[in-house]
């Protein structure tokens, strides 16, 4: 039997709208089945005008003035019925608003209070601003990515979403599981600097064993090895080569016509420059797509480097339904997949305050009280059709 509500059905989450990692984590929680409600400030967006509305998809939005004591009380009453609260403010902000961990756990001792920050809730840098690139820089991770001449940030995949969002979710799920034994909630301190460092565990281990050079393009996985790199093709586009294992490397050499004329063994670093030159010359002889076709049914471990606009059209990703198109924009579906409780289909982002009335009523606020809160400017309801939110269990 298939349950299309998702594996997190029955988990209720209050999200204090913010930037980047916290909204992405809440997107994933919502599409995995949790009942997530996004709390915005009236008249504004937590994304600060940056066009990142895609991170707000698949969950309703209510607008509450959290600087008003009545608005703070609205939030605390939502917390009373929630399993999780997610916030991504700087340390101390929610405490000053009267909705910090102590305030919320006093109302709901079973609450998981999940905090997403860059530097963490303590330490000398806790109050300093930063972004993905600065967190990656301080952990040594940025130093390991890029060309020999300069570090290159991997967009914001590493610290924001890898070390941030995904570790926040790990913390939330672990705390929810622990609560089934203890019956008690707790605070999750998810810092991007911690998560990013954790992502580098393997590299730090290999470095400690003396098998990793503390420099870029000098190692097996960072572009140093000719059989684990990208190569420009005749049309200026690239292929990615990942023939690490000897059996795949042998196939690569055979398919490139290099099996009887390439000098040196695969892992003999002295011959890597000559091997790289030979690979570059061969790959430059055909277009990217010609190579992709020629090597498609082999174990050479070669793939075309697709652009962001090309990737959603690839037959494999189409067959798996990896992407969905919303409002004309191709975007990835939630991952991972589940055999019995698949996640929800993504739905478009909601306007700030679009769901205020139905969310509050669905979470136990009487209609007359909601009308009074609107009249007093404590909450804001955007005009138009509302998205009905059912009460959490």
Topology:
Layout: E1 12-16, H1 21-31, E2 35-40, E3 61-64, H2 69-80, E4 84-87, H3 93-97, H4 101-107, E5 112-117, H5 132-139, H6 157-182, E6 186-191, H7 192-199, H8 201-208, E7 228-232, E8 238-242, H9 246-256, H10 272-283, H11 288-295, E9 302-304, H12 315-320, E10 323-326, E11 329-332, H13 356-362, H14 367-375, E12 379-380
Parallel strand pairs: 1-2, 1-4, 2-3, 4-5, 5-6
Antiparallel strand pairs: 3-12, 7-8, 8-9, 10-11
Q: What is the compact description of this entry?
A:
The relative contact order is 0.14.
Describe what you observe in this structure.
The protein has about 400 residues and is α/β, with parallel strands linked by helices. Helices cover about 35% and strands about 15% of the residues. The chain is built from 14 helices and 12 strands. The strands form 3 sheets. A 7-stranded mixed β-sheet has the order 6-5-4-1-2-3-12, with helices on both faces. A 3-stranded antiparallel β-sheet has the order 7-8-9, covered by helices on one side. It starts with 11 loop residues before the first strand and ends in a 13-residue tail after the last strand. The model has no long low-confidence stretch (mean pLDDT about 95).
Major sheet description: 7 strands, mixed
What structural class is derived from the secondary structure elements?
Answer: alpha/beta
Uncertain runs = none
What is the total tally of β strands? 12
Gross geometry: elongated
Instruction: Give average pLDDT, whole number.
Output: 94
């Amino acid at each position: 039997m298939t349950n299309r509500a998702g594996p997190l059905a029955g988990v209720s989450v209050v999200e204090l709208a913010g930037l980047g990692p916290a909204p992405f984590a809440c997107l994933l929680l919502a599409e995995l089945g949790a009942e997530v409600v996004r709390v915005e400030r009236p008249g504004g967006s937590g994304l600060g005008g940056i066009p990142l509305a895609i991170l707000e998809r698949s969950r309703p939005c209510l607008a509450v003035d959290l600087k008003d004591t009545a608005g703070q009380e609205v939030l605390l009453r939502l917390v009373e019925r929630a399993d999780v609260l997610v916030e991504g403010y700087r340390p101390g902000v929610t405490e000053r608003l009267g909705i910090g961990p102590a305030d919320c756990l006093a109302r709901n001792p079973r609450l998981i209070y999940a905090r997403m920050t860059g530097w963490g809730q303590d330490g000398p840098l806790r109050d300093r601003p930063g972004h993905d690139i600065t967190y990656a820089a301080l952990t040594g991770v940025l130093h390991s990515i890029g060309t020999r001449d300069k570090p290159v940030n991997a967009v914001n995949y590493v610290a924001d979403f890898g070390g941030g969002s995904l570790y926040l979710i790990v913390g939330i799920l672990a705390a929810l599981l622990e609560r089934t034994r203890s019956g008690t909630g707790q605070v999750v301190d998810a810092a991007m600097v911690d998560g990013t460092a954790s992502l580098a565990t393997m590299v730090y281990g290999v470095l400690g064993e003396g098998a990793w050079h503390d420099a870029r393009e000098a190692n097996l996985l960072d572009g140093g090895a000719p059989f684990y790199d990208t190569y420009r093709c005749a049309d200026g586009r690239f292929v990615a080569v990942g023939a690490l294992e000897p059996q795949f490397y042998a196939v690569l050499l055979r398919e490139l016509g290099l099996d009887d004329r390439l000098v040196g063994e695969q892992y003999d670093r002295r011959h890597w420059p000559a091997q790289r030159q030979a690979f570059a010359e061969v790959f430059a002889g055909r277009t990217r797509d010609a190579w992709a076709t020629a090597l498609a049914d082999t174990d050479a471990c070669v793939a075309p480097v697709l652009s962001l606009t090309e990737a959603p059209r690839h037959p494999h990703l189409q067959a798996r339904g990896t992407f969905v198109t919303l409002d004309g924009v191709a975007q990835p579906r939630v991952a991972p997949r589940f055999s019995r409780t698949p996640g929800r289909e993504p739905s478009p982002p909601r306007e700030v305050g679009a769901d205020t009335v139905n969310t509050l009523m669905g979470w136990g606020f009487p209609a007359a009280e909601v009308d009074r809160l609107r009249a007093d400017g404590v909450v804001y309801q955007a005009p138009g059709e509302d998205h009905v939110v059912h009460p959490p269990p």
